[in-house]
Structures are given as C-alpha cells and as structure tokens.
Design brief:
The protein is an alpha/beta fold and 286 residues long. Helix content is 44%, strand content 20%. The chain has two domains: 2-76, no CATH class; 85-273, no CATH class. A hairpin with a 2-residue loop joins strand 8 (223-232) and strand 9. Helix 2 (14-32) packs across helix 4 (53-76) and helix 3 (37-47) packs across helix 4 (53-76).
Length: 286
Amino acid sequence: MLVHCAHALSKLPLRIHHWLAEWWLFPMMYYVVRYRRDIVAKNLRMSFPDKNDAERKQIEKDFYRQFCYTIVESIYGFSCSDEEMKQRVIFENMDEVNRLVDAAGGGIFMLAHMGNWEWMASVQQWVSPGVTEINVYRRQKNKSIDRLMRAVRAKRGGVCVEKQRILREMVRYRAEHQPVTVGLISDQKPRPEVTHTWLTFLNQETGFLDGGEVLGKKFGYPVFYAYITRTSKGYYRCAFRVLAAEPNQTAEGEVTTAYAKALEQNILEQPHLWLWTHNRWKWKRQ
C-alpha cells in the first residue's frame, strides 16, 4: 500500500515536492514533532565546538530542510525518467572508475548518509555495460517501509541485497563471471564489541564499520568513496575518490581510515548534508 501511495505521489512535479517539503514537512518535523532535535543539537555541539550557537542553529535548520528534501525527492524518483536522473545526479571521473572496475572484475563504493543518498543508486546508469550494481541494505522492521526502500533503490536496475547475504551473493556473481559494483553505506554506528577501527572523527572518538575494506581485500576489488555535494536544490554531484586501487597492498585499517578522512572532509564542506539525526556516538570503546 505504501509503495502504491508513493508511486502515485511521485507523479507530482518536483517543484511541488520541494514546496511541500519546505512549507509543510519541514515545519511539522522541526517545530511540531521536533524529531530528534535533542540528538541533532548534541551531535552538532560536540562536532563543532568552535562554532557559536547561532552558527550551529543555522546548520541544524539547513539540515532538517535537506532531510525533508531527501524524503520527497526519493518519492519523486519513482517517476523520474532515466534521462532526467542523469541530469540531477552527475557522477564524475567515471572513466577512471570503470577502468579500475573492469580490470578487477568489480569494485566497492563506500557511501555515507550525505545529500540524497537514495538517488546514488542511479550509478547503475554510469557503470560499464554488463556491470551489476549491488545496493547493500538492512532489512527494516516495518514491512511496508522495507518494500518502499527496496523499490526506490532498485528503480534504476540495481540489485538490493541484505547485508547478511552480501558475501554469499558476491561469491555467486564471481563464480558466474559477472562483474559487480557494491554500494555500502558505511557511516552507521557499529556495536563496540565488533568494532576494529576507532578514529578521531569530528572531534570525537568514533568506531567505524570496516565491511568495505574487508570485501575489497577478499575479492581484490578497488575501493572508492562517493564524495557527494549538492549543487542546487534537487541537483547533486558524486565524485568517486579512490581509497585503494589495490586494497590487498594496504595495511589493516588503512582503507577504513581513508574513508573516515574523506567523509569528514565531505561533511565539513557541506555539514547540512549529513544525517545528524543518527545517534552516531551512542556507544564508546569498551
């Protein structure tokens, strides 16, 4: 039911979606519901101790607006044509990316909750013909939301795979000589008992998932960071930065550290684009 409703709403022009986000969804979420505002304020205060209250408050409001834009833009993506999507999300330096991916038979794209991360699944339109884009996701408890998420991410021809099954699926694709790129959103908080890499990130000790590094080394696939920026409302650029062309030649934790540094730089450039509602620093090193 939720998928059908979202598909019907997606028929509206994007300017209407943005208007609804600006004048209905944002006031409702920010002023009425006050969705996770205490977590956002704490995260910004700890991450930007050198900024004053007014500067942090401006980032906070800009973030909630962007968050609302991301919600409505993701819905609009159902009906957005491939041609329009290629104009709204520009993937840069794809010649280098495709060269490395084609040579290795696959690649790892490490992403973050930046900008409209749901639209990043449209990279399937930019990779070499014959390469399958796998979007790794975590199953949602709400079945309707889970179906909606999978439908949005598979819209451009990619394949959604639960994180528990990704290793098995990658082995199967390799056995079938099918080249793949694997998109991993890697900025969630890992449980401390399974965290191998702790780094100073945004002025705080932070644990990082190392799945991208592990998979890159296991399969010998180059690892990239998707550096996402918003150029204007409804338009984004993604520049893939090479974290490791040959991950097997790197030291333990080196790729994950490079990811954290690239993400931090990305956030500092446009801080309102990151998902500040996430309780990122809930757990500490044991």
